[in-house]
Amino acid sequence: MKETQTILSLITQSASLLERAGVDTPRLDAELLLADLLGVGRAHLYAHPEQELDTDVLREFLRRLERRAKREPLAYILGRAEFYGLEFTVTPDVLVPRPETEVLVEAILARAPQTVADIGTGSGCIAVAVAVNLPRAQVWATDISEGALRIARENARRHHVADRVHFLQGDLLQPLAGLRLDVVASNPPYVAESERLSLQPEVRDWEPPQALFTGADPLQFHRRLAAEAHFHLREGGWLMVEVGMGQAEAVASLLEEAGYRQVRIQNDLAGIGRVVEGQYSPK
């Protein structure tokens, strides 16, 4: 690229480079990278297409562009992602929050619980979004990764709910010993190892594998949650889990076999079964 560049020429060339690299949204990503670096909104780029960029800006932009061309997720380069109308800090220690997970947040909020557990919290996006939208709720968030919990705590502080989101390190439900809650929710790993090569490079090569892959059985974590969650639910409480494409019916059967009632599947905006929930009602 030339040493002197205008906004328009830089975006045009960068979008072409990202397209050749296989990025799905090359122009948008180039615009977001540049807008972030300049500290402006994308509208500024369109309003000032002939603005020339100084050498330092250009050098840093090209460094970030190279990272994106290697298919590093845009959210990791920017250090943030939006979820449920809130901005979250993200690093390679956590999954990038996805829009379909907002279905799980909606399911939780619909029950208006006073006490919630978010199992495998990652960035804390579910726990924090729930706490922000339910100002009286207490939320417990568990994760086996200290790196993930560090990011989740930062996000709770960022959105002023650190006093109501309690972070615990440990395997799945283990840290909840002695607690009885209104809702136990989780977006657990659900991708079989055999599916690894079918994933986009952004996911396969960059996101934390322990938060994605399950080994041979894609439902191994759902099985554990169905079998163990009732120990931490009050009578009438709800277990809610996110599932992958094509998994909803099988997970619904797991909950029914474990004794949950009113089991139902909720679809995402694409019409895919995304959340399965069931009510704990001991006989």
Question: How would you describe what is shown here?
Answer:
The N and C termini lie far apart (70 Å). The protein has a seven-stranded mixed β-sheet with strand order 7-6-5-8-9-11-10, with helices on both faces. Strands 1-2 form a two-stranded antiparallel sheet. It is of the alpha/beta class and 283 residues long. The chain is elongated, with a radius of gyration of 21 Å. Helices cover 38% and strands 20% of the residues. The chain folds into two domains: 66 residues, Helicase, Ruva Protein, domain 3 (Orthogonal Bundle), CATH 1.10.8; 199 residues, 3-Layer(aba) Sandwich (Rossmann fold).
Search tags:
single chain, 283 residues, alpha/beta, Helicase, Ruva Protein, domain 3, Rossmann fold, two-stranded antiparallel ribbon, 11 helices, 38% helix
Can you summarize this structure?
The protein has 283 residues and is α/β, with parallel strands linked by helices.
How would you summarize the topology of this molecule?
Elements: E1 5-6, H1 7-20, H2 26-38, H3 42-47, E2 52-53, H4 55-69, H5 74-78, E3 80-83, E4 86-89, H6 102-110, E5 115-119, H7 125-133, E6 138-143, H8 146-158, E7 165-169, E8 181-186, H9 201-204, H10 220-228, E9 233-242, H11 248-257, E10 261-267, E11 273-279
Parallel strand pairs: 5-6, 5-8, 6-7, 8-9
Antiparallel strand pairs: 1-2, 3-4, 9-11, 10-11
The topology string of helices and strands comes to EHHHEHHEEHEHEHEEHHEHEE
User: Mean pLDDT, rounded to whole units?
Assistant: 96
Structural class: alpha/beta
Stretches with pLDDT under 50, minimum 5 residues: none
Note the gap between the termini.
70 Å
As a percent range, the share of helical residues equals 25-40%
Q: Largest beta sheet, briefly? A: 7 strands, mixed
